[in-house]
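Now for a sample.
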Amino acid sequence: MTKILHPLAGITAFLIILGFWVSTLAVELFGPQSAIVAVKTTIPWLFVILIPALATVGATGFIRTKGRGGRVIDAKKRRMPFIAANGLLVLVPAALFLAFRANAGLFDTGFYVIQGVELLAGAVNLTLLGLSMRDGFRLTGRFRRRRAVR
């Protein structure tokens, strides 16, 4: 069961976070204020899907690697606390703050500073999750390292 659930939850979480990031950037650069409000107020509602997906990834990853080690597994395990801390301490509070401010029409310096922090922290989490996905695919044999042809 974890063989299917782990990658499914991981891809789901990655795509949701990517959707948050891309939609935020797109509406900030090209959208009207009403689109910014719509995106910023929708993001917290999607936590209902994202947080269980991330918890599932962590739990199934722990189960799948129990008693196993190695460089790749150890790297994945080292990334997880950073991903979780970044999400819980930076991204969730930032999203809630931005949703509140956008809904109230408060697009001031504070809003844009936190928006910048959120985009940066989101990019970090996307990178870390992407690296963990790559490593997971390597562990399962879905991606093989290409050897240089000489």
About this structure: Helices lie at 2-30, 33-42, 47-65, 71-103, 109-140. The chain has a mean pLDDT of 92.
